[in-house]
């Protein structure tokens, strides 16, 4: 579509901090490619998600965050206008190959981890109020023409004052990526995003989905539990995406697994902040953090033998998980 005015049955409005949801029109940015995201007004929470996405993305401007160019509005439909991401999502590209080689080689996967971490650091520590994404996963990390990671889909995001520790809401998100405390209590914080980022790291390492509902002989169930088991057994090579054909750095693999396990500790107070995660991925402070984590034998919040010890137990026991599963599809 060429640049100029966008005027079909919808009208377009540039995104700004002074957001209005009226039916307005204006010129499209002069650029070669853009993407349109149609929101279903009649879907559960569709209108709220639309307004949230417009308001929060208008506040957050960073190299590793998806920039909102504008939106359209009618009585029955909502349309968001974004820059076009030619390489799609991380989830979609993990299984793609060119000339027999994976599109996302080890170097690109490490770069995606770093770029995503930088975007989340900005949301948590450089925005005021801070923004909690609440749905960090490979499907919501987009890739530009240079395969730079761009965090997208802010439909479930929440603003949180820096003086507040958490926000309590109905559980939203994707099963396998939702932090245990959020599943159990509905409380989310920036540490909820840290957990989701840890699962994203495991998606990059394994090339697998966070939860495998298949029933084949190689069923892995919940990926986090499977990875923890392999890590204890010192069988890290078994968790690496076979499409990489052993073309990865063994030391970086060990470090990335350790960072992922630090991020996915069940007790949110033990998880690092995203700024600490970024530094560890850049090679600063991981050894100390990992050593300290190994001295914590039993999380303080475990007060009974019935407290879940596996992530799959949280999924099975949560009374909120059905709602989360229903809202975890593509948006």
Mean pLDDT: 78
- Give the helix proportion (percent range): 25-40%
User: Number of helical segments?
Assistant: 11
Strand order of the largest sheet: 1-3-4-2
Low-pLDDT ranges: 1-26, 213-217, 298-304, 319-331
Summarize the topology.
Blueprint: E1 12-14, E2 34-40, H1 46-59, E3 70-73, E4 77-83, H2 90-93, E5 97-98, E6 101-102, H3 106-126, E7 130-132, E8 141-143, E9 149-151, E10 158-160, E11 167-168, H4 180-185, E12 187-188, H5 190-206, H6 223-232, H7 250-263, H8 274-281, H9 286-294, H10 311-317, H11 321-326
Antiparallel strand pairs: 1-3, 2-4, 3-4, 5-6, 7-10, 8-9, 11-12
Protein name: Protein NSP-INTERACTING KINASE 3
Pfam families: PK_Tyr_Ser-Thr (PF07714)
Keywords: ATP-binding, Kinase, Nucleotide-binding, Transferase
What this model shows, in words?
By secondary structure, the protein is of the alpha+beta class. The chain contains eleven helices and twelve strands. The protein has a four-stranded antiparallel sheet with strand order 1-3-4-2. The longest helix is centred in the middle third of the chain and has 21 residues, at 106-126.
Can you describe this structure in just a few lines?
The chain is an alpha+beta fold.
């Amino acid at each position: 579509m060429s640049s100029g005015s966008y005027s079909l049955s919808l009208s377009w409005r540039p995104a700004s901090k002074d957001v209005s949801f009226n039916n307005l029109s204006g010129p499209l940015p002069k650029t070669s490619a853009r993407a349109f995201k149609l929101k279903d007004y009649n879907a559960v929470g569709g209108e709220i998600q639309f307004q949230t996405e417009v308001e929060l993305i208008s506040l957050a401007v960073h190299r590793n965050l998806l920039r909102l160019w504008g939106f359209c509005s009618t009585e029955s439909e909502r349309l968001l206008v974004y820059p076009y991401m030619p390489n799609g999502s991380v989830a979609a590209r993990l299984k793609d190959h060119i000339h027999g080689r994976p599109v996302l080689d080890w170097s690109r996967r490490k770069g995606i981890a770093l770029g995503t971490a930088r975007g989340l650091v900005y949301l948590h520590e450089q925005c005021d109020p801070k923004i909690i994404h609440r749905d960090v996963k490979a499907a919501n990390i987009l890739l530009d023409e240079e395969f730079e990671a761009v965090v997208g889909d802010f439909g479930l995001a929440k603003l949180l004052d820096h003086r507040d520790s958490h926000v309590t809401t109905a559980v939203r998100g994707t099963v396998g990526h939702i932090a245990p405390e959020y599943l159990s209590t509905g409380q989310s914080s920036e540490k909820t995003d840290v957990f989701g980022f840890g699962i994203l790291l495991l998606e990059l390492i394994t090339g697998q989905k966070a939860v495998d509902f298949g029933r084949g002989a190689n069923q892995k169930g919940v990926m986090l539990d499977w990875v923890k088991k392999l890590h204890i057994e010192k069988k890290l090579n078994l968790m690496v995406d076979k499409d990489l054909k052993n073309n990865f750095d063994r030391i970086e693999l060990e470090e990335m697994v350790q960072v992922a396990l630090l991020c996915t500790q069940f007790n949110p107070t033990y998880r690092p902040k995203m700024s600490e995660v970024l530094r560890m991925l850049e090679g600063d402070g991981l050894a100390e953090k990992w050593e300290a984590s190994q001295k914590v034998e039993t999380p303080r919040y475990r007060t009974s033998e019935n407290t879940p010890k596996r992530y799959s137990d949280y999924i099975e026991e949560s009374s909120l998980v059905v709602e989360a599963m229903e809202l975890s599809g593509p948006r």
